[in-house]
Amino acid sequence: MKKIVRNKNKDMSLNKNKSFRYVYNRGISVVSPLLVTYVLKNQYRNNRIGITASKKIGNAVKRNRARRIIKAAYRDLRENINTGYDIIFVARVRTVNSNSKKIFFVMNQHLDKLGCLKRSLFNKQNHEKICNSFN
What we know:
The chain is of the alpha/beta class. Helices cover 39% and strands 19% of the residues.
């Protein structure tokens, strides 16, 4: 008989409409021109991640690109996020035209503001310099 071993650090995904609505209604949100982030503490040991891109973003190709960019940025930041959160990232129209580095920076800012990070990857002195390099 095979023993099933689950990775404790693996993130689960939010994929039920009920779960998304619960986080939207009860969670805390932060908004920027590139991304909207909703966070709610959960009772699990893992984070549950949801990524949405509405039809306002554009056709299916653009929506999938936005999701891929957000996933890539999250993958780079995942080790620095505390566990036990439901996190939803909502793509905005400008997400499609940006790259994962910009989204990574915005995601870091949002999660730091919401208290989900173990430590912020950017200090306040570099903040303006980094912001200006993205414009």
